[in-house]
Specification:
Dihydrodipicolinate Reductase, domain 2, Rossmann fold, 2 domains, globular
Length: 321
């Protein structure tokens, strides 16, 4: 006997919301019933991509707490997450939330507490959570193939910020909610936390063109226990976009580039590893459905983990605490 499809509602129809919309309409575990955004133009654009069967509106109450919705996916700016997620959990809905979990500590704590109190599935959409590269790294460290882990290095570079596919999300260019630390570094902070343990900021800093704009550079020394983690990031510099995460071990080192390409070094050169195909967005929806049915998975990020990442990212904005 198979379970009935989970009735899903989407809140936020920007780039990420539309991407999830495209996955959800054909996903076997879900029936997409509602999709909402406060911007009528965003609703119209998303509506044109779906044949039928989905109710579109500009009213969040059509999804949050609605009896016709079992679970929600939230893809709105991070400062709005708590106001949507907490009442949804209190109404008994499961929640799949975009990262970062929140901006403020109070919002993050409220979301973690609401998830724990509700007992419902609550997860955060970190794209590295179920990638073959992440699973390979986790096993390689556990098996001792890396030897002693000596350090991690993270390099990020963007010729323009926001990136083209997110250009309509103007808040990403502002310090209040945006910036590449929250939007991109958070993924690699999650990866490092998962593989090596919680991270502490030792010395972190960033620069801006003006007090209201997103960061132009960021640099920091962090620690996962005794393991140093070095970050350098820049936006607005000529050159290719760079996403690079490197783990240095005494036996083997590993380098992750462009999210999914993993290489290994035994000596003085890198060799590409042949991994399974990258996991698409739909596979994290499958894991979310699994969690809703009472089968949590380590390959889906939890609210407490995302809250630790939030704290780390916000330390760049607030100074070391």
């Amino acid at each position: 006997m198979t379970s009935a499809p989970i009735r899903l509602g989407i809140v936020g129809l920007g780039a990420m919301g539309r991407r999830m919309l495209a996955e959800a309409v054909t996903h076997p575990d879900f029936t997409l019933t509602h999709a909402v955004d406060l911007n009528p133009a965003a609703v119209a654009a998303a509506w044109n991509t779906v044949e039928s069967g989905v109710s579109f509106s500009t009213k969040v109450e059509d999804v949050i707490g609605a009896d016709s919705v079992d679970a929600i996916y939230v893809a709105t700016p991070p400062a709005t997450h708590a106001a949507l997620v907490v009442p949804a959990l209190e109404a008994g809905q499961a929640v799949f939330c975009e990262k970062p979990l929140a901006v403020s500590a109070a919002d993050g704590e409220a979301m973690v507490a609401a998830a724990q109190a509700s007992g419902r599935a609550a997860a955060v959409n970190f794209s590295l959570s179920n990638q073959p590269a992440t699973q390979y790294l986790e096993q390689a460290i556990a098996d001792g193939r890396a030897g002693d882990v000596l350090a991690v290095e993270i390099r990020l570079a963007f010729a323009e910020w926001p990136r083209k596919f997110q250009a309509e999300a103007t808040w990403l260019a502002r310090r209040a909610q945006g910036g590449f630390l929250r939007e991109v570094f958070s993924h690699f902070a999650y990866l490092t936390d998962r593989l090596l343990g919680p991270l502490d900021p030792i010395h972190v800093a960033m620069d801006h063109h003006d007090p209201t704009s997103a960061e132009t550079t960021a640099y920091g020394l962090l620690r996962a226990g005794k393991i140093p983690v070095h970050l350098t990031g820049i936006a607005g510099a000529a050159g290719p976009t760079t996403y690079e995460w490197t783990l240095r071990g005494t036996k083997q080192s590993y380098r992750l580039t462009n999210w999914t390409a993993l290489s290994v070094a035994h000596g003085n050169s890198w060799a590409s590893l042949d991994l399974p195909a990258p996991a698409p967005e739909s596979t994290r929806l499958s894991l979310f459905a699994q969690a809703i049915h009472g089968h949590p998975t380590p390959d889906l990020a939890t609210f407490p983990t995302a809250h630790r990442v939030r704290h780390l990212v916000e330390s760049f904005h607030q100074g070391v605490r």
